Amino acid sequence: MSNISSARQAGSRKRRTAALVTGVALLAGGVLTAVPASSATTAPAGFRLVGLGHVAIAVPEVWGSNDAKCTTPFRDTVIIDTGFNEACLITRNPGIESVTLSSGPADYGFTADDTFALGGVTAQRERTTCSDTGTNGSPVCTGAVRFPSLQANFRAASSTDAAAVEAILSRIRFVSDRVAVPDDGVVFNDEQENSGQVYVDRLQALGLAPRVAVRQSSGMDAGYLLDVSPPAGTLLEPGDTVTVAISAAPRGPGDEFGVAMNSDDDAVPDGLLLTDEQVRAGTTVTIPVGRRIWASTYPVGTAIGDGKDHGEGTLGGELNGTSLRLDDRNDGRDYGPSWLAARPGPTDITLTITADGQRIVLGVVHVIVSGG
What we know:
Layout: H1 6-16, E1 26-28, E2 31-33, E3 47-52, E4 55-60, E5 64-65, E6 68-69, E7 72-73, E8 77-80, E9 97-103, E10 114-118, E11 121-131, E12 140-147, E13 152-158, H2 162-169, E14 172-174, E15 179-180, H3 185-190, H4 195-205, E16 209-215, E17 225-229, E18 235-236, E19 241-247, E20 258-263, E21 272-274, H5 276-281, E22 284-288, E23 292-298, E24 316-321, E25 324-326, E26 338-341, E27 345-355, E28 358-370
């Protein structure tokens, strides 16, 4: 991840993007004006292409991918195929630029202020506007381009100025000889339970070759789309292979929900210390003396409200070591078994449930308590 300041990045981008104008109708002095279209299939120096179908946009190589929380970018980034988003409200800090790619209907509030053609395809342009919705009321400018027949949307945003939005959208181009790995937005909106096969069908319709990999995933029945490689937005040639990970059927009650470990340590983002995958893999973590950690389960996918005996309410943790002690949980929080880091040293926590009368081990977490 780059440590270059946003201000320096913004300045360098404005110098580099002057010659990258393509086929988008731009807003200049409040008037929508058309510029020549481009069909270049290679990115300029210092840029990379990310796309939807046969439409792509060049973004700086220093930008991240999906570097956002609750859909709000925390650094310059391209956002595509973000899956499920957290429900929270975060304001955008100054000096950050981004573009969000999505397939399907127009995003909420989109207004077609003008139309133009790019690569023979009709596009709609929403004029750039600015509002004081950033951190401490700082301005955030947004503008968008939509291709109705392709169900492809490009929304640029900047907490620098409107000119930055225009520069971003000016780099959209039509790529007739390549096609992008699709995002999964339409799949999850329409057919979640059969999303794996639906996505495979989409790849085949685009002329790409899917390779299916069945993988165990907690809380999912068989057939769910888990992830793809290369990632969504990657431009490929017809016939190239895309690996599609699809969920296998649960092996038993222990696979029918997710389990996580959390902490009240301020250094742990959002309190999430370990994900379900990390818990089940037996990950080692280090926490300081005096911190609290706790485990919890959560229903996922078809495990929600299906009446099965998942054993979630029986979650427990067996300690092997003396550096942790049971927490009395007297602060009113609603969570599973909890422990306090009492003294330096290692302790293993074996997380278990009881389902259908059977004890099931979910994972063994290795905890090292540091400090004194």
